[in-house]
Amino acid sequence: MPGPQAEERAPELEAFMDGLRKLRTGAGEPSFRKMAAKSGAVSHATLHLTVTGRRLQPWETVREFVRACGGDEEEWHARWQGVQLVLSAEREPEPTPVPPRWRSKRVLVPLALVLVAVIAAVVVILLPGEPGPPHPGDSSSFVADVTIPDDTVVKPGTQFVKVWEIKNTGTVEWKKRYLRRTDLPVAPGACRTPDRIPVNDTAPQGNVQVTVTVSTPPTAPADCKVFWKMVDEQDRELFPGNKPIYFSVLVRP
C-alpha cells in the first residue's frame, strides 16, 4: 500500500518505495527498530524514511534497509541508480534561451541525451529482470529444514546446530562453495555464527546437507532470523536472483 505521502512523490520513486515495502513484507515484516539493530549503522527513524519520505534516501541508507531484509544488494543498487537518474533529470533547470541558429548545437543535443537516459532508467525500473548465475546451467533449490524448524524457541546463552538440505538442480557440479551470512557485520544482541560455512561438493541433481553452529545471545527475549547466500571461494554470489535461505529462532528464558 502506498505511504501517506505517495501523492507528493514522483511515480518512479513511489514504485521504488513500494518494492522496498514488499521486500520487508517478504522478510516477515521486521520492525524498523529490529532492522536498525541488525544494521548497527542507521537509526530506525532513518530506515522508516526510506519507504515513507518525500525524497530518495542515499544508497548507504537503502543498502542497510535491503541488508536487514535479506535482499539482493546489486539488484537494488541498480534500481536505486535508475530512480536517482530519473529524479535528477526532472530537476534539470530550464535551458537558457539562445538564438535559433545555435539551438540545435547547444540545447537539442543535451536534451536528447537526457531523454535517452531517462527512458533507459524507466526501463530498468519497470523491467529490472533477475540477474542470472555466473555459470550457465547452474541452479539450486531449497529442500527442507532438517533441524530447528522456523520459530523454534531456544534458550539464551546456548548453542544449537542448524541443518538445511538443498539440491543441485542444474547441470554444473558444485565445488568449493559456501553459504555466506548476509547481515555482516553482525549486530549486537544477534545470534552468532561463522561468516561462511562450507557446502560439500555436490553433483548435478544431487542433494547436500549444510550445517552451521549457532550461539544465541546471552539475554532474552530476542528474535534471530539470519539469511544466507551461496558464494564461491572469491566470495562471488552464485545465485543473485534467488531468495536467500535462513533460520529463524525465538530466544526466550
TrEMBL record:
Matching Pfam families: N_BRCA1_IG
Gene3D superfamilies: Immunoglobulins
Location of the Nbr1 FW domain: 147-239
Transmembrane segments: 107-127
Keywords: Membrane, Transmembrane, Transmembrane helix
PANTHER family linked: OVARIAN CARCINOMA ANTIGEN CA125-RELATED, PROTEIN ILRUN
Protein name: NBR1-Ig-like domain-containing protein
Organism of origin: Amycolatopsis speibonae
Taxonomy of the source species: Bacteria, Bacillati, Actinomycetota, Actinomycetes, Pseudonocardiales
